[in-house]
Design goal:
Chain lengths: 210, 210
DNA sequence: GTAAAACAGTAACCTAAGTTACAGATTGGC
DNA sequence: GCCAATCTGTAACTTAGGTTACTGTTTTAC
């Protein structure tokens, strides 16, 4: 675990903090598709991502989903952060987008470290900052962009996160995450294909130039 | 200032912190409509609200606006919080919705107090928590609700914030904050009037039962 | 191998909401 | 008082995107 910690957080955290994390943290490997957290669940630990990616989703009362953002190496879940203090329930769902390696830290340490370690404070606030901004960007795209632009953004981001130019999803799955319908997504994807920007296949999409 | 501080934050903050705020904070009265912060500006101070309300808005590249949420007594701006650590620019605009009284605290104290005072840490995290959740609710309403529902929610919230059942705004102003067009808002408002839920007048709307 | 399920393409249609245009009423400046 | 600006109401039209329905193809289960 020490190696992973040093690699991802070594230049962020001071020595003492690294030691403490080593003592109370547990290294976990989660497979793609694994549900790390669901809406209404209580938060038990705080994840520090080492590798892979986690998608964070919102769901409304009818069960409609909406992708909020991805967490990557060096990120942590700010939703978790807020929940640690009061023992509040999660407002979001978190699912491993790829195979993911992370360190779980018990929430009890949060408060203590915030007082004790400057680097931890910085990390926590930095984390809030990026997460809030990503949430704002998601909100922007929903409020201001049309579906075709949102779809292009989605494909780009997904390709970046998965580090390949192939999106291994059905149209239906994409529709879920963008909170649209399968027919609409198929329609727009077909347009993108006709523009020569992507190539459509069964169960996957090849990105040419977006 | 001491009285205001005790009233709004007395049971939240410990004695030492109250003293420090007294030393470095400045009490300010801002009139309705005053712009406290704009997009791209650097954050200089952190507001602790005593009375009144502040609306927080997002703007896209075309200048289209969108109301995010209101800040009230006991609230602070979490955008400011994140900005304090790194010296980042503001991502949002903040305008006094009503005449507002607040205490401005220089951002330099943030870091120090977070380490020093337990009550300050709790306040900061609590603040993040509520703000993130409000942002999520705003996002929900944009992603999942139709404009008529959003309008009803807007009127309700505005009435609550202003503590009266009269909304002193033109249809155009409402359209801006909901990121819609005047004609659409007029249309929907007329429907609400026909349902007996509101009463329309020039420059104001009377809420009957929503 | 065969039946069932999953996936994608497409057409026809519907609706919420944005746009343009214009008219009448009220208000404010002078 | 008078003109200009502001505010609201309404009609006609457009469009993005959601819905339903029905293909044919590929994959999976048995």
């Amino acid at each position: 675990m020490l190696q992973e910690l040093r690699e991802g957080y070594g230049n962020l955290f001071e020595k003492g903090l690294i030691d403490e994390i080593m003592q109370v943290g547990t290294l976990k490997d989660v497979p793609e598709g694994y549900k790390l957290m669901d809406i209404g669940e209580y938060v038990k630990g705080m994840p520090l991502l080492i590798s892979g990616a986690i998608k964070v989703l919102r769901e409304d009362s009818d069960g409609d989903e909406l992708l909020l953002y991805y967490l990557e190496k060096g990120d942590t879940c700010s939703m978790t952060l807020t929940c640690c203090m009061g023992d509040a329930k999660s407002e979001v769902r978190a699912i491993a987008e790829t195979d993911t390696k992370l360190i779980m830290v018990p929430v009890q340490k949060m408060e203590e470290w915030t007082a004790k370690y400057r680097s931890w404070r910085n990390f926590v606030f930095e984390s809030y900052h990026t997460r809030l901004n990503e949430l704002l960007q998601t909100l922007d795209s929903i409020a201001f962009d049309r579906m075709d632009m949102r779809l292009v953004g989605y494909l780009k981001e997904k390709a970046r996160i998965n580090k390949e130019d192939i999106i291994r999803n059905t149209h239906q799955e994409i529709a879920y995450e963008l909170h649209s319908s399968r027919v609409v997504i198929s329609r727009l994807l077909k347009k993108l294909e006709q523009m020569g920007k992507i190539e459509l296949h069964r169960n996957y999409i090849k990105i040419l130039k977006l």
